[in-house]
Each structure stands twice: as structure tokens, then as C-alpha cells.
Amino acid sequence: MATKLSAHSRNLDCSEAEWQARLELAACYRVFDHLGWSESIYNHISVKVPDEEGAFLINPFGLLYSEVCASNLVKIDLDGNTLDGSPYPVNKAGFVQHSYFHRHVPWAHAICHTHTTATMAVASLEGGLQPVNFYACNFAGRIGYHDFEGVTVRAEEGERLLKNLGDQRVLMLKNHGPVILGRSIPEIFITHWSFQRACEIQLATMAAGKPIVVPDEVIAVHQRDLHEAQVPGTMPGGADFAAWTRRIDTIDRSWRD
């Protein structure tokens, strides 16, 4: 029988596995906020509940990322029903995107969508992200693109989102911003961090002059050898996410509530 844990700020009972997922997701919200990747009360990061089929956690709509903590995350099912008695609503745009991907992409245990200035600017450029810097080469040939259809609140857009994602882990919503999918919170964190850096550097390079495009054969070598830049014995993003979690713990530990 699963261990029951009570959260501090709500009368919340959940399994140990769910509580650990809540802690990791809450930490992710605070790290994103610390790095300047939040957008007022908007945007969203979600993670599947590890021991409950068809359930995932997402931010309470109306709170800043700096207010998100483990206990106030909202648990919903793939049809949008609240499963944990939360008094908070869920952003409809976030639900439409995340529920569709969580339902149809089995490996997508964690998903984030942001509106950072750099990623939105590149999403609004003809040709999107170009292989003109170290980080951008990570993503060459590994991004899906989806034409802007307005705010994503219509369920029927989900099929086109899925088609344009294909077998990639990054979907660039043109004129809008990225959706990043991964097997874990640390994985989407390091993917977003690298993608953000790629976009920032591309914009800086374009402002300075004509970028140097990296040849395809060099990109192939770069992508082949990327795993060698990872901390030995760790999963993708694991060491990075742990380091940033330690950083936010020195600032404000309330995300653990």
C-alpha cells in the first residue's frame, strides 16, 4: 500500500511517488522563474503522476511561478477533471496542449511551454532556428514546426500539433513559442536551457552581422558526440537540474510546502 503524505498548505493526501513528482515539478517552476522564463501567470509545465494512469500535474491558473509549491499544483485527468480537490482552475490553453500530448505520446512524461523573448522571436523568424551556433547545432533536424492558429484552446488543433511534432521532442509554434517534451523534468529543463541559449545567441549574432552556417557534416559529428559532454553516470539534465534546485533552495524553500 502506498505511503500517504500530507502537504502543508492544503489537506492533501497522496502517494509517496506523487509527492516526489510534485516536489520536482514545483522546483522546476521556481527554477524557470529564477531564470526569467516565466510569463506572468501564463504558460505551463506538466508532469505525469507516476502511479496513476491518465493523471498529470500542472500549475494553478492565477498564481505566479514564484508562488507555485508542491501542494498547490493541480492534479487533473486527460479530460480536464480535477482529481485532488484543488480550488484552482487550470489554464485552458495549457490543458489543451498538454492533455493531447500526454494522451498520445507515451514517452512524454514531462512537457513545458514558454513565451521567452528569445524563443518567441526565433519562432517569428522565417526559417526559425538556424545552425549558426554551438547550441543550435544540438537541434538541427530535430524540431517540428506548427503554423500559428491563434491561442491553443480548441481541441481540434491537437491532431495537427501531434502531426507537426512527428518524432521530435521540440515543437516550435510559429509566431508563438516552443513546446518541449521529454521523459523527465530534468530532461525538459536541459532541453529548454539549451534551446533558450541557442535562440539568444542566434538573435545576438544576427544583430551583429551575417551568421556562419555550420555544415551538415559537422552537425552530424556534433550530435553524435553530445552524450560525451554529459556528467558521467547521470540521466540527461539530471546534474543540471539538481544544481539549479540547490540554487533555489538558497533563495526560498517554500516550493517544498
TrEMBL record:
SMART domains: Aldolase_II (SM01007)
InterPro entries to which the protein is assigned, alphabetical: Aldolase-II_Adducin_sf, Aldolase_II/adducin_N, Aldolase_II/adducin_N_sf
Domain Class II aldolase/adducin N-terminal stretches: 23-203
Domain of life of the native organism: Bacteria
Family in the record: Belongs to the aldolase class II family.
Record-linked Gene3D superfamilies: Class II aldolase/adducin N-terminal domain (3.40.225.10)
Name of the molecule in the record: Class II aldolase/adducin family protein
UniProt cross-references to Pfam families, sorted A to Z: Aldolase_II
